[in-house]
Amino acid sequence: MSLEHNPWQMAQAQYDRAVRHLDLPPYLVDYLRHPRREFIVNFPVQMDDGRVRLFTGYRVHHSTVRGPTKGGIRYHQNVTLDEVRALAMWMTWKCALVNIPYGGGKGGIVVDPRELSPNELENLTRRFTSELGLLIGPDSDIPAPDMGTTPQTMAWLMDTYSMHRGHAVPAVVTGKPVSVGGSLGRNQATGVGVMFVTRRAMRKLGIPVRGARVVVQGFGNVGSNAALAMHEQGAKVIAVSDVHGGLFNPEGLDVPALVRHVEAEGTVTTWPHGERISNETLLTLECDVLIPAALENQITADNAEAVRARVIAEGANGPTTLEAEEILRARGTFIIPDILCNAGGVTVSYFEWVQGLQFYFWGEAEILARLEQILVAAFEDCWRLAEERGVDMRTAATALAIQRVAEAAELRGVCPQL
Ligand code: NAD
User: Fold this and answer.
1) Domain with CATH 3.40.50.720 in the chain
2) CA distance 134 to 156
């Protein structure tokens, strides 16, 4: 992996750029630049044919300064420790930015979940949960879904943890199905949140949402819900893609029907009402908003010149490399950074955790209204700081978040103190 494409080096470089705008003691600059702790586990899982396969999993806690660690668990064949470190650090900044009382964490297993049967996925999840037993808990570390994991995965995790405790502990994980203590609105929260901040950005930039051309890379939880939400606002979703390829229709896709198609067929590429295109071409389509919602390193120095979007709304974590960002910024592309743009998921996860701790549940309208209020406030904070300091939105968002974590760290002090 080239330096440019190592997510951990990218996360640290973003940190270095933002921390320069703050006046922090050197020990804090160093402390927040590193993960608090890292867990690596190799564990066996029984396959359907009787074989036993060994898997590698990670859980990284970047910061515990502002509260328990929060962050998803990813199942993907390319998961690495460096990727998990980067995602954990971004979670710290994301939680601080939307001002919820969590530190940042992340986990992952090196596995292609499409190659495992439901039974094997359940075995894998239950064993990994048991391995994580020392770390996770409603007061210490609360996982959630990420790429390759679903509400069902979270239900298995919740059940395994609860079996070890002898009673149901719904607040150990978020992103669960509603019937086991999940929150209304959580499933669509990240995608709807992308719409809330994108709509705000478009208003600031004078781009009408109605009729705006939107392109979405990745049609999983984030991408499909962001596409649906933008479609419901009157935008024209002209292209979408998944791991199998892309689909383009300049007249606009019927997103609700496409979602139903993907539920049945598993891919956007077999939808008959559009032209098949590659993921590479999709990123270069002329549009008002490009929403990368798949994985890291999609917009790089190699393709940034060809990107013709006015706004990039980062639904995925880390989709734009540093070099690409320089190129895009010079050309006036407005980037809504991941830690702001996709923070809707962790915000409603926080609501889910609060509801789970209290065993008292809220209505969906209340949840979405609170979500919008929090995301719009965070957007405005970043916009203001970016204007004041003459910096881009990512630097503003990261600096704001680091400042909040640093303040908490200073107030807590260093333990033990001589
Ligand atoms: P998901 O597994 O539900 O969906 C991922 C989608 O990306 C699928 O449609 C898949 O086919 C597609 N994809 C995979 N590889 C691709 C490739 N090379 N090119 C094009 N498409 C590809 O995952 P998700 O939960 O929607 O997460 C997507 C991104 O959003 C990740 O970066 C994740 O960290 C981030 N994120 C997710 C949440 C959440 O609540 N789920 C919250 C914040 C951030």
Assistant:
1) 189-336
2) 17
Q: What is the pLDDT of residue 3?
A: 52
Kindly give, in sequence order, each residue whose CB lies less than 8 Å from that of residue 331, ignoring residues fewer than 6 positions away.
none
Ligand 1 center to 352 CA (angstroms)? 21
**Is residue 106 annotated as a catalytic residue, yes or no?**
yes
Closest C-alpha to ligand 1, atom 32: 316
Residue whose C-alpha is closest to residue 82's, from 102, 99, 58, 117: 58
Could you give the CA distance from residue 10 to residue 298 in angstroms, rounded to a whole number? 13
Give the per-residue pLDDT at 4: 60
Q: Are 141 and 103 in contact (CB under 8 A)?
A: no
Write the single-letter amino acid at 41. Answer: V
Partner residues linked to 106 by β-bridges? 60
Cα–Cα distance measured from residue 383 to residue 391, given in angstroms and rounded to the nearest whole number? 10
Distance set, CA 152 to CA 121, 168, 290 (Å): 10, 16, 30
The topology under which CATH files domain 35-172 is: Rossmann fold (3.40.50)
The whole-number pLDDT of residue 203 equals: 98
CA–centroid distance, 274 to ligand 1, in Å, is 22
Per-residue DSSP letter, 57: E
Check 70, 94, 106, 176 and give the catalytic one.
Answer: 106
Architecture of domain 189-336: 3-Layer(aba) Sandwich (3.40)
3-state helix, strand, coil in the chain (%, to 5): 50, 20, 30
pTM over 0.90, yes/no? yes
- Residue 380, number of CB atoms within 10 A of its CB: 12
Query: Which residue ranges of the chain lie beneath pLDDT 50?
Result: none
Please give the pLDDT value at position 274. 97
Q: Which atom of ligand 1 is nearest to the CA of 144?
A: 40
CATH 3.40.50.10860 residue window(s) in the chain: 35-172
The set of protein residues with a Cβ atom below 6 angstroms from ligand 1 is 145-148, 190, 217-223, 241-243, 279, 293-295, 315-317, 342, 345
Q: CA–CA separation, 218 vs 261, rounded Å?
A: 15
Helix ranges (H only) for 132-169 are 151-165
